[in-house]
Each structure stands twice: as structure tokens, then as C-alpha cells.
Amino acid sequence: MARTQHPVVLLHGVFGYGRTRPLWNRWFDYWPHEKLAALDAHYIALDLGVFSSDHDRACEAFYQLYGGRVDYGDAHAREFGHDRYGATFDTPLFPQWSAERPVHLLGHSLGATTALALYQLLTIDFFGVGSDHRWVYSIISIAGPLSGTTLPHYFGFYDTEPSYAPLTRVLTVGVCLWLRLQTQFPALRHVLDYRMPQWGRSPAISLRQIFSARNAMLTSRDMSLFENQPAHRLARNAQLQHMDKLHLISIASGSRSSTPTTALALLVPVCAMATASAVALACGERTLAVRLSASTAAMWLWLRKRIVLPLVQWRMRRHTHDLPELFEGFNRAEWEANDGAINVCSMQLPRVVAKDDECSDGDGAGESDDDAASTASTASSSESVTNRAEPLALSRTLDERACGRPRQRGVWYTCQVPHSDHKLGTNFDRHATPAVLKQVLTLLADEFEDRITR
């Protein structure tokens, strides 16, 4: 496989990480580094804020690559109530970044929308280094919420007003409390680092604010769960500029429409073991309680991959059916299919609000498994998003590529990987991810970049 001339920058999603892993670097890799090394991939993995907005994460990505102290912008910091400056990166990962040395941006999950945000900031030279659209060669989205996700609504987040739903409160309290603890005790960052220093001195992490329904972080709307609600995402998509200058690829994961009976069945012994542990502790049998707790934890770690995402897929599908109209033309049936975090129709391309806007059903109906594809022109905010059939066979040979029609810039080439879920593109998916990454890197090197030398 040919090595890409330009580095591929890997942008993780929520709760993700790059090179620095949780639990003193003993947790599992987020990205399949061993597979990428075997492919001789030219890549850079970044560590971004786990819940931060796309703007904040894009700023962090820039300074990690280019070097310097993260500057979120004075106007942005004032608007959302957090510090203007973040971490300092004295050793840049790609200091030669320029129009002559561009990068490919590959984002998994919310990393895809972070890639869009970073590109938009570069085109307006937000960082004051003379950047423009030439600094990015392509954007690749893997299971990214390019048109938003209904998962925030499942947790009770809505645009209209702060939510008081139990799941929302638990999530907010958990995030703010841990952020406060790791600010006061930096050693805790080795356990799990949120990488959100801009909120370190915010009133949002004061004890009074942490347990308040009017939490400053919750009401600021400068968090990924707010930014990637469908209505907000579609509005942002209408403002995208210079997308006609890029090579664009989106890879969608699959979705299951059936009730996850296997996951529900596996959940029974886990709950039973946890209940038995609690009963033993209540009866004073501490030794037995410890053993049962350890067994419960081991069972959960072994079965969690077969339980969590199937159950969330099922709940998201049912919850989406009961949602109000999130935007003009919102079709609940089209948005039900999801991979456990992102709606499948949203992974295809950045859409804009339109009454006749339609999403795929997520099952590849009417398309082959390998060639399910759709494209969209997103050259400027004044253009409407269009959708047309355009097969993207990632596994084509070089001879077939030479005979085929050249890939167009500003066109989203989308393929779907069936029988996959939101782990697609990460180290947690050992089946489809290696082949997908190999094919994407080959496409970038042999078809997109190869035109530079022709």
C-alpha cells in the first residue's frame, strides 16, 4: 500500500483520546495504532476535549499540530463564559503545516464535525498564521454526525431551554464534579483527563453550581451535545464555505432494527450478580460481597460490547419515534436507524434544512453492501444540498481507478459498512476497521494525492 504524502490527522469523538490513554496509559487504545503501523500509515493522533464544542476542539487541534498556547478567541470566550486560553504545546506535532504541506483530517464520531470546524477556522485565518483552504487536502468522516444526532435529546438536551431531566442532571453533575476534582488534584488526570482547561476556573465547577439546574456549563451551549443536535447542526451546515476545494469521504456504520433480545438476556445475569453482591453486603458478608462484586465487574467487562450499543440503538430508535419536530421537514422514520450514538442518515453528508430532505433508512435498501453511496455538493452556503447515486468502491484496483471518472472536489462520496456499529473506525472494532482504514488510506494515496504528481 502506498504511503500518503500528507499526514492523516486523527480526531476522536466524545470520551475519546489519542496517544494518551486513561488509567496511566494502561487502558485500551482508541485508534488501532498497531494496524496503522503495519500499514506504514503517515498519521498523527490528537487528544481533544472530551465534551468540548467543535470550536474549542478545533482550536486545540490546531495548536497541537502547529504549536503554541491554545487561544479559543476573545469573542468566543466572552460569549460562552470560559477562559480564553487553554493548554500550551511547546512541541508541535506538525510544525511545517502550511498550504504547501496540507493535512488530511479523519474524524470518528464527533471528530468529523470537529474537522469541519477546524477547516472553517483555517479558511478565515482565525489563528492569524496566514492559513486558507489549502491547508487541508481532504476530510474523511467515519460514523460522524454530519447532520447532527438525536442522542442529546435522549439525554434530555434541547435547544429551547436548560433541561431538568434526570439523565441530563446526572451527566452534568458527573462531568463538572470530575472536572473540579482533576483541577484541584492534577494526578487524577492520569485516571481520565477531560482535557477541558478552559472551564477550570469557571463558576460552573463550583460546588454550588455543580448541583444547580442553572449550571453555567449547561446553559452556555458550548458543549458537543448541544452543538450536534440536528437543528443546530443543519443551521451550521448552511454556513459551510469553501467545501468545493476539498476531497470529501463519509463512511457510515450500520444499524439493527430488531429488538436486542441477546443483549437483554445477557443483562439479566449481570443485574442478578450485582443484586446478590448488594444483598451480601447488607447481610454483613463482606468477603462474599467483594467476590460477587469482582465477578460482576469481570462479567460486565466481558459482555459490555454485546450489551451497551445494541441497547442504546434500540432505545434511541424508540425515543426518536416520540420526538417533536426538531426542524422543518423532520421525518422520524428516516432518523430512527442509528448505530448506538449517531443516526445513520446523518452520517452520509452535511444536510441543510429542507422540507423534501430525505435520509436513507440505514439498511442499505436498494444499494449493494459495498457500493451504497450518495454525494452532495456543498460548495457554498447558497447552494442547496443535493443527493445522487455515485458508487464508492474503496477496493477498486489501480487499473479500474485509472479507467474511472476522477473524484470531484466538493462532493461527498459515501459508503456504508453493514453489520457494524459506532465502534467502526476505532480499535474497539476488530472486524471491519482494519479493512476500512486500509482502503481509505489507499484511496487517499493512490487516487487523490496521486493527481498531484500527474
Task: Please outline what is shown here.
It contains 16 helices and eight strands.
Based on the coordinates given, report the CATH architecture of the largest domain: 3-Layer(aba) Sandwich
Relevant CATH superfamily of the largest domain: Alpha/Beta hydrolase fold, catalytic domain
Number of strands: 8
Question: Which H/E pattern describes the elements?
Answer: EHHEHEHEEHEHHHHHHEHHHHEH
Q: Give the N-terminus to C-terminus distance in angstroms.
A: 19 Å
Spatial sequence of strands, sheet with the most strands:
2-1-5-6-7-8
Might you state the CATH topology name of the largest domain?
Rossmann fold
In DSSP terms (H or I, runs of 4 or more residues), the helix count works out at 16
Q: Proportion of β residues?
A: 5-15%
Structural class: alpha/beta
CATH C-level class of the largest domain is Alpha Beta
Mean of all residue-level pLDDT scores? 82
Proportion of helical residues: 25-40%
- Please summarize the sheet with the most strands: 6 strands, parallel
Low-confidence stretches: 360-391, 395-403
Number of domains: 3
Q: What Rg do the Cα atoms give?
A: 22 Å
